[in-house]
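User: What would this chain look like folded?
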Amino acid sequence: MLSADTTRTIVGIIGNVICFGLFLSPVPTFVEICRKKSVEQFSSIPYLAALANCMLWVFYGLPVVQPDTILISTINGVGVFVVIIYLTIFFFYSPKETRVKLLAILAGEVVLMAMVVTLVLTVVHTHDVRSLIVGILSIIFCVCMYASPLSVMMLVMNTRSVKYMPFWLSFAGFLDGVCWTSYALIKFDIFVLIPNGLGAILGLFQLSIYAFYYERNPIEEHDENEKNIEIA
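Assistant: Here's the prediction, encoded as structure tokens.
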């Protein structure tokens, strides 16, 4: 029978794979943005939230903060790299006003991250307190990341169309939340459990909204309506 540590490692590796899928799930969206040379009504908020979240979890998983959680750092390090690519594309195809807002938020995230790393490593000297501080911040930003599609969900409900709600992003987010919730329960980690448990619930809610409105107004029908409007 597998030990708890071995099981946790296996679940963590599976979580890394699913999380990598989560990071790649917006690729079709950005292919469309590049093809149309416009971000249209797509929002940068989910990706900005994801960047802040990944940076904090990279720090949280390091041995200097929380020992034996390096798998959290590795996948979130990949996430930082991938999300920066997405934001670069988003910036390139955005109007001037959106670019200014995007840069302002990015600058704020970088400054905040630099302050957190500096203060935690210079002022706090025990793993328990370091993990407490970084863990609380990670929970806040992880919940923000999972909740960020709520603005898109409002758009879906207002337009009765799922065109601007990427299915694979919601689906991968749900699986990611379930996997890391399991990881946190095997060797109890409240800081991993809370945001990912909420993430699994929010992911399920997003999928329900998608299914509800897709049944009533499929993407293809929405696109056809847009074409008819343009012709008229």
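Confidence is low (pLDDT under 50) at residues 224-232. If you want, I can go into more detail on any region.
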